[in-house]
Write a structure and sequence with these properties.
heterotrimer, A mainly alpha, B mainly alpha, C alpha/beta, A: mainly alpha, globular, C: alpha/beta, 7-stranded mixed sheet, 6-stranded mixed sheet, about 35% helix
Chain lengths: ~325, ~375, ~525
């Protein structure tokens, strides 16, 4: 294997791990506030179809003459639409869980089924269409360079994901609002007794998580394979949930974890081409899921036994019970 | 005016019965409005989805065929969800159950005998239970969240199916299609049973609903399932071991999903191919909640969800709604049933002009 | 407008720091506060005295803005105050130390305090400020420690510092001593007296009469949500205040005189249990023996291994060797709760809801939890619904439980009635040995007396009983002998009637992870034999 091949593989690892990194960064904040939103997969699908549809509509050549500035903006607005779609899905979850006190596990599953249904309903109009991939921002001299592309050859969303990991780290550990959020996730009743709005903090966290999942979804339909296919996120939302556990609820470790999973997703893509064909391709395709299970077992079996998990994670908030 | 939820002294029994019915009714209303708003004939779509499968007798067989696996899987999930052991990988256990049964079919090809079908059914149950045993083991041994592990195994099961039907188990006479050889008559259950238009699985499902009901309501095990889910500490105090309960709930729900899988393939499809996965394992989660985690409720809810499956296809051809329509109705139903849970434990109070009402109340 | 009620002191020169007028608060099914009024002068230490359930906590939650009164008014420094939330309360200069600490285990002391402050202040400035307050009142605490590593007393200090940082003009202390050793209580009182001398008013909520006599200037006594009296505790006796607080003269526990104990019925022998989790306590060489007819009390400050001991005795956690727990000569240490029950050992854990009973279950199902085998509910492998219902009805009747019937849910019962049901459920199984924890915790006086009587009667019928309680008065009233649990170890057995409160206090003292102090205490005790 030569250097160029290695770099191409590395670029693929970064590309395929970015959506789970984005979604997991959002979910980390949600879980730190004490809420378990299992609906990541559903919100990702909502984001995927919204991002694709808006980019497609705004990128229509019919606007080329009248609104020449629109086409270059279209993918950016598509990402925003993805974020909004994910956040809307999470709003539904938040209303159910926070206002009505519904079971978080069941509601999260409902959100997955809902997101799958709604996205394929809207998506039925877009099957078979393609977009220009929203892939690079740096000029070709950097982005297409066989070596330098390891740093410059990515979609803006890849850099956004990096920035968000840092921002979330800073927010959780260095700001007062982050402290309040952690406090709410540790002990909701105490936070309330000091006078913080548990529901308000959690609502904000859930919205953020939804927006991040939506952006992650739009990455699938706008960057990885710039077209819409039903259920195209293929379970990556669940991998993102596993990633949060893997990272021990620490933003710093999300990055390493995402690349770890990305490595196995890349193996699947490269299996045929690179001498891994001694095992059936289905084996490689199931590797990310098997690895997630193994990693969960290793993480959970440690001495601390998942003691880093926020104490209120997944528990209903019952201030008057 | 202010609306608030006030805690009831006791959970309302009436609401426990009424809310699922209300959820279905409200789903129809919301569905009609939404599909009307996006440009379809909404009321017609609702009529085709919810009523045509009931009024058109030639659809009953289809409803029965879909209800059978939904009810069977949901019965197992009722046990798990009650104990708050979240097996959401029933789809994978359904697949592995079907694969295990098909494995027996592969080994018994060319043989005759009454024992073959029971062997296949047992293999199906064991296969599903085995697939569910993995999350149970990981949960009890390493404290791995069973939600994630059971779900991940669905994807692994799908790849396993792909591998087997496209590789070792591929029908040599199948024109290179990824599918197994069709089962022989002695490997098949009848397509319909007792001269009715319904598949044998439906009768098994109904019979098991009664068994599950008695077990859940009256047995020591059933009491344990309910206590473990509601109050884990009380369960330990009452002599129930939470880890045993994880195993039992997982094995039962996995076994039921496996049974559903092998029944489907030995009495309906007659072989396995890439189109076999149907999403029943996920829809059964909705069934179990719509049935309020009660075995008899699950039987009724299974029929309702089966109707939406069949009706969804009718509406697709008649009203030209997309095929995702049924899924949206099903998700809406689940949202509404979960949301209406609040009414079982709380009552809605509306304060009209606070002080007057309050003063009157204090004086009383 | 609601009628103004209560005794408003209009003649004082300076306006009262706090004045409540006609405050009423109703919850579904309960009138928690009924037309309550009183006032607190600047620099005064004012006691709010009442039994559990008298409405003290509800009242102070309204002062602190956690709850809103249904009617009535609150005045602060003579001005009508609308305390919409705790933030508004703090802005007025009201600080509060809760009975159950609102602390965040996984965060540091500093972070915990920062969360309680409304003004923005840098961590460094805050730490300096905290150290200043700690010095001023002579309190010991490390701001950088993570709360989960701290003792109960230290945790309370966090709450106090948090309140003091705001320079409060009214400090509310809700049952502050329920988790403290007598020595820690004395330290706390010193701090409070210093504060009051500086002009801060203190509202001190308690049901412990001797504390109120030692500390407070005025006492307002609540009963059943109403104010029944206001007095100067220095001029009252414990007895007179207790009568006001309880309302009726309590029935004395009836005990047959000159009881003889049978042979050893229930014992623990070198029972060791490793600590479980970060907050658990390990059990070391637990050794005791209870004879038939005897009641052994286990005293101690909360969190010294009582729960662990309960679990090890009831079988929820099994011991490493079978000999560690012995019932009527049979080693049962390796058996689970169901098997131990079958052999005649019943248990009542401290927590009613979710441990001893399930709130959403009917009383019949709650009966089945522990009585299904012993009372013969099983019929053809199934639990007979009829027998379960009958048993629940029997318990309801025999223990005068206020419940509609066996189909009522446990959650619909009041705390005292549920506790009576649970105690009845175990006692009617006629156990050979009964282990109970906090039998009357949070229970009204009438129910508490009935429960204690039932325990004594059970022992009189020949059962061995172990009562774990933090309420020393209760133990001294009910038990024949006492042990003190301290950091997972038991003291020697003390005879009730021969032991003094001071001696028990010393045994309980010096705890909280300070082995040196414990050693000193033990030494002191041995140096001054009683």
């Amino acid at each position: 294997m030569n250097l160029e091949f290695l770099i191409a593989a590395l670029v693929t690892v970064v590309n395929v791990s970015t959506p789970i990194l984005l979604a997991a960064t959002g979910e980390l904040v949600v879980e730190k506030s004490g809420v378990l939103n299992l609906g990541v997969e559903g919100m990702m699908l909502l984001g995927a179809i919204a991002g694709f549809a808006i980019t497609f509509i705004l990128g229509d050549p019919q606007y080329a003459d009248t609104l020449p500035w629109l086409a270059p903006l279209a993918p950016w607005l598509g990402v925003v639409a993805g974020a909004i779609a994910g956040a809307l899905g999470s709003t539904l979850f938040a209303l159910m869980v926070l206002t009505l006190g519904a079971n978080q596990v069941a509601t999260g599953l409902a959100l997955v089924i809902f997101g799958t249904g709604v996205s394929s309903l809207i998506g039925s109009a877009y099957v078979g269409l393609a977009l220009t991939p929203f892939d690079q921002i740096f000029p070709d001299s950097l982005a297409q360079d066989p070596i330098l592309k390891v740093a410059f050859g990515y979609s803006p969303l890849v850099y956004f994901a990096f920035i968000m990991v840092g921002a979330v780290y800073w927010f959780l550990n260095k700001t007062r609002a982050g402290l309040v959020l952690r406090a709410v996730g540790e002990n909701d009743l105490s936070a309330r007794s000091i006078g913080y709005s548990v529901r308000g903090v959690r609502f904000a966290a859930i919205l953020f998580g939804g927006a991040m999942a939506g952006i992650a979804g739009s990455y699938f339909s706008m960057v990885i394979t710039p077209l819409w296919a039903e259920g195209m996120t293929a379970g990556r939302g669940w991998i993102a949930l596993a990633l949060v556990v893997f990272a021990g609820w620490r933003s710093g470790r999300l990055l390493a974890g995402a690349y770890f999973f990305g490595l196995f997703m890349t193996l699947e893509l490269y299996a045929k081409a690179s001498g891994f064909s001694f095992l059936p391709s289905q084996f490689w395709a199931s590797m990310p899921y098997l690895m997630a299970i193994i990693v969960l077992a290793l993480m959970s079996a440690r001495e601390s036994g998942g003691a880093e998990a926020p104490a209120c994670l997944g528990k209903p908030y019952l201030p008057d019970a | 005016m202010r609306i608030r939820f006030e805690k009831r002294r006791e959970p309302s029994k009436a609401m426990q019965l009424l809310t699922p019915i209300g959820a279905v009714a409200l789903t129809m209303l919301i569905g009609a409005i939404i599909f009307w708003a996006i440009g379809y004939d909404g009321p017609r779509a609702v009529k085709e989805i919810f009523l045509t499968p009931i009024t058109a007798s030639y659809k009953w067989s289809d409803v029965g065929r879909r209800a059978a696996p939904l009810i069977l899987i949901a019965l197992g999930l009722c046990v798990g969800n009650r104990a708050k052991v979240w097996n959401i990988g029933a789809e994978g256990q359904y697949l592995v159950g079907a694969l295990s049964g098909a494995g027996v079919a592969n080994l018994t090809r060319g043989l005759e005998g009454w024992w073959i079908v029971p062997m296949m059914l047992i293999a199906g149950i064991l296969g599903g239970a085995l697939w569910a045993a993995i999350p149970a083991f990981l949960k009890t041994r390493f404290r791995v969240n069973e939600i994630l592990s059971s779900l991940m195994l669905v994807y692994v099961a799908l790849q396993l199916l792909n591998y087997l039907v496209a590789g070792p188990w591929k029908d040599p006479n199948g024109h290179n299609f990824p599918q197994t050889a069709p089962f022989t008559p002695s490997q098949m259950l009848p397509h319909t049973a007792f001269g009715t238009p319904f598949p044998p699985g439906l009768f098994i499902a109904f019979a098991l609903s009664l068994v599950f009901w008695i077990v859940m309501a009256r047995s020591e095990f059933g009491l344990g399932v309910r206590v473990v889910g509601d109050a884990p500490k009380a369960a330990r105090y009452a002599g129930y071991n939470a880890d045993h309960m994880v195993w039992q709930a997982m094995l039962i729900s996995g076994g039921m999903a496996g049974l559903a899988g092998i029944l489907e393939c030995s009495s309906q499809s007659g072989m396995l191919n890439l189109g076999f996965p149907s999403g029943y394992g996920f829809t059964a989660i909705i069934v179990s909640f719509l049935g309020r985690l009660h075995p008899l409720g699950a039987a009724l809810a299974g029929i309702v969800l089966a109707i939406t499956y069949v009706g969804g296809q009718v509406a697709q051809t008649v009203v030209h709604v997309p095929n995702a329509t049924a899924g949206i109705f099903q998700a809406t139903m689940l949202f509404l049933i979960l949301a209406s849970d609040v009414l079982v434990r709380r009552r809605i109070r509306i304060d009209w002009g606070r002080p007057v009402a309050q003063a009157a109340e204090s004086a009383a | 407008m609601a009628e103004v009620g209560g005794a408003a002191d209009k003649d004082a020169k300076a306006p009262a720091r706090l004045e409540m007028r006609g405050v009423t608060k109703r919850f579904p099914g309960v009138l928690a506060n009924d037309n309550v009024g009183f006032s607190v002068a600047p620099g005064q230490i004012h006691a709010l005295l009442g039994e559990n359930g008298a409405g003290k906590s509800t009242l102070v939650k309204m002062i602190y803005g956690v709850l809103a009164p249904d009617s009535g008014e609150i005045f602060f420094d003579g001005e009508p105050a609308r305390v919409a939330n705790p933030k508004a309360a703090r802005k007025l200069g009201i600080g509060m130390v809760f009975q159950h600490f609102s602390l965040f285990e996984a965060l540091t002391v500093l972070e915990n305090i920062a969360l309680g402050l409304d003004s923005k202040i840098s961590q460094r400035d805050l730490e300096a400020e905290i150290r200043r307050v700690l010095d001023l009142y002579g309190l010991k605490l490390d701001p950088r420690r993570v709360v989960s590593t701290l003792s109960v007393g230290e945790r309370q200090r966090i709450e106090i510092v948090r309140a003091l940082l705001l320079n409060p003009r009214l400090l509310i202390m809700d049952e502050p001593t329920s988790v403290l050793t007598p020595q820690e209580v004395e330290q706390l009182f010193e701090t409070l007296r210093k504060l009051a001398a500086g002009g801060c008013s203190i509202l001190y909520i308690s049901h412990k009469l001797h504390e109120i006599i030692a500390l407070c200037d005025v006492a307002t006594i609540l009963r059943g949500g109403r104010k029944v009296a206001e007095c100067d505790p220095k001029k009252e006796t414990s007895k007179s205040m207790a009568e006001l607080m309880i309302g009726a003269n309590l029935k004395e526990i009836a005990r047959a005189p000159g009881r003889a104990f049978g042979e050893e019925r229930f014992a623990a022998r070198a029972l060791n249990l490793p600590k479980h989790g970060d907050f658990g306590i390990a059990l070391h060489d637990i050794d005791f023996s209870v004879r038939a007819g005897e009641i052994l009390g286990v005293a101690g400050v909360a969190g010294n291994g009582q729960n662990e001991l309960m679990e090890a005795l009831s079988g929820e956690v099994s011991a490493r060797s079978a000999d560690a727990v012995v019932l009527a000569g049979e080693p049962i240490g390796r058996l689970g709760p169901t098997e131990r029950r079958a052999r005649g050992l019943c248990a009542v854990p401290e927590e009613r809801n979710g441990h001893a009973a399930v709130g959403d279950f009917t009383l019949a199902d709650n009966g089945s939890l522990t009585a299904r085998r012993r009372m013969g509910f099983m019929q053809g492998g199934l639990i007979s619904a009829g027998r379960a219902a009958n048993y629940a009805e029997t318990v309801i009747k025999s223990f005068a439980v206020k419940a509609l019937g066996s189909t009522s849910t446990a959650g619909s019962l009041s705390g005292g009635n549920l506790q009576k049901f649970i105690m009845g459920r175990e006692i009617l199984q006629e156990p050979a040995a009964l282990v109970v924890s906090q039998p009357t915790w949070g229970v009204d006086a009438g129910a508490a007396a009935a429960i204690r009587q039932a325990i004594v009667d059970l022992a009189a019928r020949g059962a061995a009983v172990v009562v774990v309680s933090q309420d020393l008065d209760e133990l001294l009233e009910v038990c024949d002998s006492l042990v003190v649990i301290n950091l997972g170890r038991l003291s020697k057995v003390l005879k009730v009637g021969e032991v003094t409160i001071e001696e028990i206090g010393l045994l309980m003292g010096g705890v909280h992870g300070d082995p040196e102090a414990t050693a000193q205490m033990t030494e002191a005790l041995h140096a001054h034999p009683i």
